[in-house]
Design a protein that fits this description.
By secondary structure, the protein is an alpha/beta fold. Helix content is 27%, strand content 19%. The protein is built from 8 helices and 9 strands. An 8-stranded parallel barrel has the order 1-2-4-5-6-7-8-9.
Length: 238
């Protein structure tokens, strides 16, 4: 029998509920996700919020960057898609509150550090040092320098680099501050799987929809699937 690969709900169960909200996180838990992937941005006064975009426009209608707003201003924004936002009750959650939720439900987190933390990652480091996250939690980012900082200050935390076309795969063996690789499913190819296998760095793949052929018999180096539809991927594996 093929081993079960943990399923991480992308921004919560974002195929069914508004991304990066407690509604999406609770939906993921109900759908038997093994973990939650979420995004972290920083406010002007260094409070950490669970929000994907640097710009607030798409989900709040406000034409401003999140790191140009105070935490109080961010907390007051109505969160939702256009036309539904007027009646929205949801707000952008703080990372601290999500940490409490994750520990309450024993839900591992894939914490993606976004661009607003490049100017100052220390609020995240300080918060990280105050909590014990559920087993299986880790920190990921496109930004190499953020992962370096995490590993320096919190060496016990697993770090994962999110690769792009510019990523230098032949340097992976030198990146001792990187524990795992996260990649779009188009990178599910022998070349990249073999490199990660040789460097003993598990791969997690995102944009998984549940109908991919490789779900039936994944490579041994695969450590996770990241999906908007956790129920589909869980069902495919059971």
């Amino acid at each position: 029998m093929t081993k079960y690969i943990p399923v991480y709900a992308h921004r919560g169960a974002s195929g069914y509920a508004l991304e990066n909200t407690f509604e999406a996180f609770d939906k993921a838990r109900i759908l038997k996700a093994d973990g939650i992937e979420l995004d972290i941005q920083r406010s002007k006064d260094d409070v950490l919020f669970v929000f994907h975009d640097l710009h607030l426009k798409r989900l709040t209608g406000v034409s401003q960057l999140i790191n140009e707003c105070t935490a109080e201003e961010v907390s007051e924004l109505k969160l939702g898609r256009r036309f539904f936002r007027l009646f929205a009750r949801q707000r952008i959650p703080t990372l601290e509150k999500v940490f409490h939720w994750a520990n309450e439900h024993h839900m591992p987190l894939n914490i993606e550090l976004k661009e607003s933390l490049i100017e100052n990652i220390m609020p995240f480091i300080r918060l990280l040092k105050t909590v014990d996250l559920p087993n299986g939690s880790h920190v990921s980012s496109f930004h190499d320098e953020l992962l370096r900082a995490v590993k320096v200050h919190c060496p016990h935390i697993e770090t994962a680099i999110i690769v792009t076309k510019k990523f230098e795969w032949d340097r992976l063996h030198e990146m001792h501050y990187i524990n795992a690789v996260h990649a779009h499913k188009r990178y599910y190819q022998p070349r990249f799987l073999d490199i990660c296998n040789k460097t003993n760095k598990p791969m997690r793949f995102y944009s998984i929809r549940g109908n991919e052929h490789f779900l039936a018999s994944p490579h041994s180096i695969v450590g996770g699937w990241i999906t908007d539809y956790p129920d589909r991927v869980v069902k495919r594996q059971t």
